């Protein structure tokens, strides 16, 4: 999934996969922090926005 | 390849006369040049319709889905691999099929011929490695190698992988081709360039779904694009919906696509959507050493779990 998304131009840091057990709360926190930091660094997504939604953007 | 026709008729006649099969699936002359069309023959006296040339690019595995009768079918290398996939996926039983292997030397891309011709094409005749094109302006001769379909050009499985009998001796396989050079060219781009590349590629798409209909892998009774409850993807011409359709279609073919080129061949606006499926083919080959439809014994790559499956993408 990740490979083809990246192949067609979605930034590598925008999509993440992880396997976290319900007992791994610390892993959950660190993964979520890491993902949100990486996605924030990329800024808002410019792709996969429909034409009509684009018009509504400020 | 034109010499196969007599042998094809002879085999079809024998199989029908001896009642080994109820139907033969092959090709007959189409009504316009360079469009040989699939043809189902049920009576021995009708076998003379059958023929073979370099325009038989349609994948005949597509016509086998959920058939109940005994069928003889002519199979190029790619067709035979899709037949293996059909058998593995329980869409037809091996015992129902008499597969007649046709060694293939590549199919002609009618668009390339039309581009090279100076006027409207009236008829096309094949002579060994040349094709004689008769146009409204006169006659021209084109080397077949120049107008091969792009997937045939890099094909490494020209001979059928599964067959009950062969029409002719196997042809030499192309060993020195690099099937994935175009995928690597895209891989080398930046994300923005990639996005632009696929935007340009899909810009003419009409959402006619000819690619899906021509594909032997697409046999779902209701395709995800036709479903309304739930609606998986928007049905309009929005570029995002077009891209989502092509992306998901490619995913449904992951680990199953044989790069037969039926999708690109069927496209009325000439999109080469193999750019999506080929990436998945390459990944399947690189990650699992898997090529679709090569054997009836091994389970498909996405069908099995192994402890050493690569998992770098998952944290």
Number of helices, where a helix is a run of at least 4 consecutive DSSP H or I residues of chain B: 10
Number of helical elements of chain A: 3
Measure the end-to-end span of chain B: 52 Å
* Order of H and E elements of chain A: HHH
Q: Tell me the fraction of residues in β-strands of chain B, as a range.
A: 5-15%
User: What does the largest sheet of chain A look like?
Assistant: none
Structural class of chain B: alpha/beta
What is the multimeric organization of the chains shown? heterodimer
Mean residue pLDDT of chain A: 85
Roughly how many Å is the radius of gyration of chain B?
20 Å
What percentage of the residues of chain A does DSSP assign to strands (E)?
under 5%
Number of strands of chain B: 9
Q: What proportion of the residues of chain B is helical, as a percent range?
A: 25-40%
- Largest sheet composition of chain B: 6 strands, mixed
**Using CB atoms under 8 Å apart, which protein chain pair has the greatest interface?**
A-B, 23 and 28 residues
The helix content of chain A is 40-55%
How does the overall form of chain A come out from the CA principal axes? elongated
- Detail the poorly predicted runs of chain B: none
Total strand segments of chain A = 0
Structure description:
The complex is a heterodimer of chains A (58) and B (315). In chain A, 52% of the residues lie in helices and 0% in strands. The longest helix of chain A has 18 residues. Chain A starts with a helix and ends with a helix. The relative contact order of chain A is 0.14. Chain A is built from 3 helices and no strands. By secondary structure, chain A is an all-alpha fold. The radius of gyration of chain A is 15 Å and the shape is elongated. By secondary structure, chain B is α/β, with parallel strands linked by helices. In chain B, strands 1, 2, 3, 4, 5 and 9 form a 6-stranded mixed beta sheet that branches. Chain B has a 3-stranded antiparallel beta sheet with strand order 6-7-8, with helices on one face. In chain B, α2 links the parallel β4 and β5. In chain B, α8 packs parallel to α10. The longest helix of chain B is centred in the last third of the chain and has 15 residues. Chain B is globular. The chains are: A mainly alpha (58), B alpha/beta (315). Chains A and B meet through α1 of A and α5, α6, α8 and α10 of B.
């Amino acid at each position: 999934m990740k490979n083809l998304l990246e192949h067609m131009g979605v930034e590598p840091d925008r999509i993440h996969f992880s396997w976290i057990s319900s007992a791994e709360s610390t892993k959950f926190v660190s993964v979520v922090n890491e993902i949100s930091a990486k996605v924030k660094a990329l800024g808002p997504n410019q792709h996969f926005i429909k034409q009509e939604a684009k018009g509504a953007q400020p | 390849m034109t010499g196969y026709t007599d042998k094809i008729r002879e085999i079809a006649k024998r199989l029908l006369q001896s009642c080994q099969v109820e139907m033969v699936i092959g090709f007959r002359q189409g009504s316009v040049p360079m469009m040989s069309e699939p043809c189902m023959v049920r009576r021995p006296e009708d076998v003379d319709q059958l023929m073979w040339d370099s325009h038989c690019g349609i994948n005949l595995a597509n016509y086998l889905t959920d058939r109940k009768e005994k069928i003889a079918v002519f199979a190029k290398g790619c067709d035979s691999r899709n037949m293996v996939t059909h058998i593995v996926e329980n869409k037809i039983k091996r015992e129902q099929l008499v597969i007649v292997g046709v060694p293939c030397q590549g199919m002609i891309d009618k668009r390339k011929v039309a581009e090279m011709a100076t006027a409207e094409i009236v008829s096309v005749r094949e002579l060994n490695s040349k094709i004689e094109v008769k146009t409204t302006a006169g006659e021209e001769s084109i080397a077949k190698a120049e107008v091969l379909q792009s997937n045939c050009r890099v094909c490494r499985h020209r001979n059928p992988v599964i067959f009950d009998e062969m029409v002719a001796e196997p042809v030499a396989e192309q060993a020195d081709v690099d099937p994935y050079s175009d995928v690597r060219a895209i891989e080398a781009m930046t994300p923005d360039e990639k996005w632009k590349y696929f935007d340009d590629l899909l810009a003419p798409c009409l959402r006619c779904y000819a690619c899906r209909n021509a594909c032997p892998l697409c046999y779902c009774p209701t395709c995800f694009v036709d479903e309304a409850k739930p609606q998986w993807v928007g049905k309009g011409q929005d570029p995002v919906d077009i891209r989502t359709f092509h992306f998901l279609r490619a995913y449904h073919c992951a680990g199953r696509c044989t790069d037969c080129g039926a999708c690109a061949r069927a496209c009325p606006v000439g999109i080469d959507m193999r750019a999506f499926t080929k990436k998945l083919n390459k990944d399947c080959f690189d990650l699992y050493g898997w090529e679709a439809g090569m054997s009836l014994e091994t389970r498909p790559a996405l069908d099995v779990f192994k402890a050493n499956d690569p998992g770098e993408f998952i944290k």
